Amino acid sequence: MKKHALILSIALAFSATAVASTIQEAPLVSIPSHDNYFDNLRQHCGKAFEGKVTVNNPASDGFEGKLIMHVRKCTDQQLQIPFHVGDDHSRTWIITKTGSGLNLKHDHRLEDGSYDQSTMYGGHTVDAGFDTMQSFPADQYSKESFARLGNPQSNSNIWQMYIYPETFTYRLIREGREFRVDFDLTKPVAVPATPWGYKD
Hints:
Mean pLDDT: 90
Structural class: alpha+beta
Distance between the termini: 56 Å
Keywords: Signal
Radius of gyration: 20 Å
Number of domains: 1
Shape: globular
Order of helices and strands: HHEEEEEEEEHEEE
Number of strands: 11
Oligomer: single chain
Organism: Rheinheimera salexigens
CATH architecture: Beta Barrel
Signal peptide: 1-20
Protein name: Secreted protein
Helix content: 10-25%
Largest sheet: 11 strands, antiparallel
């Protein structure tokens, strides 16, 4: 009896390992518009660009100083793009291929590298989008986080990112609010400091 149990245990372990191996080796499927958008951004990997606020309605503080985006780290599945505001290195946009689209997260850190109380909010694509533009409506995690922190108006947030040959645009829209920053891709600038919470 013990011998049979041992054999069964080994067989189950072998089966689980085989399944895990199959899952790890399976290709991450995607559609052309998501792949092309991802690749259009990834071609700028290692470069940094200066931007300016072009829409801020209603006006809000917090984006004074030089604005720099840095396509800092790129893999086949993820792009990490810090967004620096003057000496504030707290923000990093993370775009990840999920197999069912693209996911955007805002990684917010404190200067000591720990997570801000409002962090990792964002959303997932819900349609094909375009080679040059994708939209990310707020996901459930973000909505619950906004509500907990007293910002329920942000539950209807939609983040949009545009990538054209000469311009990259980050845009936030919701009812009664639009914020937009345009970055000049024709003039790379010096790479900024390492974002808070990250290492070289």
